[in-house]
Amino acid sequence: MRLIVPLQGVVQGRGGLLMGSLIPCTLFYFLQLYLKRHRSPKPPSAPLSPYPSPSPNLSELPRSASRSNLSSRGSISPARISNRASSIARPNSSLYYVGLDRSLEDPYDRLDNPEGIIQLGLSENTLCLDLIDEWMSENLNSSLSEGDGDEFGLARLATYQPFDGLMELKVAMAGFMSQIVGDRVSFDPSQMVITSGATPAVEMLCFCLADQGNAFLVPTPYYPGFDRDMIWRTGVELIPVHCRSTDNFTPSITALDQAFNQAKKRGIRVRGILICNPSNPVGNILLRETLYSLLDFAREKNIHIISDEIYAGSIHGNEEFVSMAEILGEEDTDKERVHIVYGLSKDLSVSGFRVGCIYSFNENILAASKRLARFCSVSSLTQRLLVSLLSDSRFITRYLETNRRRIREVYDMFVGGLRQLGVKWAEGSAGFYCWVDMSGLIRSYSEKGELELFDKLLNVAKINMTPGSACHCIEPGWFRCCFATLTPEDIPIVMERIRRIADR
Amino acid sequence: MAIGIDLVPSVQLSRVAESEKHGENSPYFAGWKAYDEDPYHEVENPSGVIQMGLAENQVSFDLLEDYLEKHPEASIWGKGALGFREKALFQDYHGLLSFRKAMASFMEQIRGGRAKFDSERIVLTAGATAANELLTFILANPGDALLVPTPYYPGFDRDLRWRTGVRIVPIICNSSNNFQITPQVLEAAYENAESLNLRVRGVLITNPSNPLGATIQRQVLEEILDFVARKNIHLVSDEIYSGSAFSSSEFVSVAEVLESRPDRHHRYRDRVHIVYSLSKDLGLPGFRVGTIYSYNDKVVTTARRMSSFTLISSQTQHLLACMLSDTEFTSRYIETNRARLKKRYGIIVEGLEKAGIECLGGNAGLFCWMNLSPLLEELDREGELELWKTLVYELKLNISPGSSCHCSEPGWFRVCFANMSEHTLEVALARIQKYVEQRMNAVII
């Protein structure tokens, strides 16, 4: 249904040349993606067939017994890359990436390029970088070779380190994570594996919790990056479990149960649920009761829960964030199913430093992850820097408070602007984005309508916001707008541009 | 009264998680455990286990320290072109341009300018370990095979196979020709793979070789290139020890071979991929810096995207960009490093000779490949492991047995010499000499 309706419009010839070409192309990619996702597993590889492009000098070539090889002086038979690689090499089809690529071509700059594309598609926070910058200049006076009395000098850092991170950093991270949840949880450094960002952490958990062909249930809308990070190399499948605006996009156990059973009928084994809490892209926080229900569900089906809590420290609203770790009791045997992903890219804005972690209660997962961490370790240099930064608890307290306040200020301004436009948004209290209901601005209440609006926003209004379809949202018209890189002056400009296309 | 048993089904893990492919149960790692439990220290524990199984380069560390002291702007930023703000957010998988350029220039310097590297073809990864795994994901499907000449770095069993599901089929080399790769053994390996119904996707060589400590000759590289072209497969050349060849002219990179024959270059181009890292030549394994250099555009694009899972911290990229673009420093470093490694090699070979132990003629790397077969009770794998136990637990030397490197002949051991002071090396050699003496006396009696 979602695919047929948009095609109708194309067939009927509505829309200009641009949309006539953009939309079919986009949909074609979607179709490919859809088909690829639902394709049955490949049969075992058969012997290589001869290359299809013969050269004119065929008769001169010696042939090996079993594998024909048609390379000659003139033409080259390209050595093939793997199937996994082929799908990655293709151009990014998700509108999440389309939007990002397009904005890079024509980025807005108040002075140099005022007609450029304003970036609302990257979930980044630049509001408190000045604080960290200040900390760095005050605290990083000594050159690397001096270190802190040789304890952390080059000699110590240059050599091979434990792949899963320095214990000092784990202690500092655990302390930071505990501070973020108001010390309602005491995170244990020995249950942590440090990775080069949250991206490899999520992938690593997929490798450890599921075999190729297994699946994870993922409540929608979800972060578009999961479609890449969790699937590319692992061969697992993501099964979207649709949430509704009527529930403020909170996952329902009924829907999870339905999805689980449907997968079972298809012969697909579900190994776990992936939740993002606080949610990306919606920005809401799951209630304690919801977490308990999810845990009950996981227990009943004997599956895992991955809880991506990367925005835990970026709460701007009044709700209190509850980590999965908090609802697990001391003696809870279900602890074995719960794995938390965290990182410093969002709460501390240091995405360039590549620091993430897996936090698990499962000894076997920790053991496997520690070994796999060799493929994604953090530079010792950066670890040292962060140990210093995170251990400065006075600074961290001030930072977290200021960060919260500044995000709130921009959020208030942003939603204030939306209010004036008469545009609604989902209740959210966390993250750097607002989940906006632009369905009032789309012509047909459908995915096609949403795509049209996305295109208009990107190419006419020159604003890049991520359409809900890229996040697998079942309701058309929702867009994720990231606001934490905007200055107060930018917001009225954004609103004005939206107004301009709304009026057309 | 019956005791209630908790029958809660425990939640299962994947095959990858439960697999033994991490290899930590092999002797290679057991020696490490022995070291961890009783590490040698010149003053505090002079009778402890000396770590000779870790290929780490500490001989030129002072040069790095010196550089950083004189150039604090490398480790502290903010005043430079790319300030803190940009770096904090920089997670572009293309990597810092300045760093890529610096890497390209460094790699060119190591090859004496005999090959050119385009910074647009450099893909950054957090270490060569990640680079090798990434290339394997890209070049092969699960169930496919890579051909790897033996003896090889034990870590390959894990890095190339664990998550990728790819198999390794050995190219069996032997001591009759100093373990060189020949067209015959290449062909034999290929046929072996076929007989196992495995589809071969590429050959992975390490040049200079680990554990042999020797460079691959130009002629052999040409033969390997011909072979991969004939079979229409890829060639990965792991050149992480390229800067540790004792003299620049001794090392021939596959990049040089490609460039020296432009007429054939196009036949080979798309197949050749080079892995490099700063862990060995620069002695900075803690920084986690690796790179893939590919002549194949699709591989570059794919590797770049896949490197999202293993990016290098922008802070580290910045520091190394500063250091490596200082070409005066780098050329001095490369030269000094080579000379010091050569000297160390001389010391260990001489010391072993005194004990009547022969080594394979080596000209590169941080280790030497020694032949202890005369000391084996039985000339087989068990005999080798018996001797290895003696070396670890009695002589207290952690040396890697050839069997962990899949060597086809028993009795060969890899011994590292660059991760310790000269004094410690002398201590280790003395222990070996004493042991051999004891063995000889025992025989006489």
UniProtKB/TrEMBL annotation, chain A:
Residues 118-498 form the Aminotransferase class I/classII large domain. The keyword Translocase does not apply. Residues 42-55 have a biased composition (Pro residues). Residues 42-77 are annotated as: Disordered. GO terms for molecular function: 1-aminocyclopropane-1-carboxylate synthase activity; aromatic-amino-acid transaminase activity; L-aspartate:2-oxoglutarate aminotransferase activity; pyridoxal phosphate binding. It comes from the Eukaryota. Residues 56-77 have a biased composition (Low complexity). Keywords: Membrane, Pyridoxal phosphate, Transmembrane, Transmembrane helix. Pfam families: Aminotran_1_2. SUPFAM superfamilies: PLP-dependent transferases. The chain crosses the membrane at residues 15-35. Belongs to the class-I pyridoxal-phosphate-dependent aminotransferase family. This is Aminotransferase class I/classII large domain-containing protein. It comes from Trapa incisa. The lineage of its organism: Eukaryota, Viridiplantae, Streptophyta, Embryophyta, Tracheophyta.
TrEMBL record, chain B:
It comes from the Eukaryota. Keywords: Pyridoxal phosphate. Residues 50-432 form the Aminotransferase class I/classII large domain. Belongs to the class-I pyridoxal-phosphate-dependent aminotransferase family. SUPFAM superfamilies: PLP-dependent transferases (SSF53383). The keyword Repeat does not apply. GO terms for molecular function: 1-aminocyclopropane-1-carboxylate synthase activity; pyridoxal phosphate binding; transaminase activity. It holds the Pfam family Aminotran_1_2. This is Aminotransferase class I/classII large domain-containing protein. CDD domains: AAT_like (cd00609). Gene3D superfamilies: Aspartate Aminotransferase, domain 1, Type I PLP-dependent aspartate aminotransferase-like (Major domain).
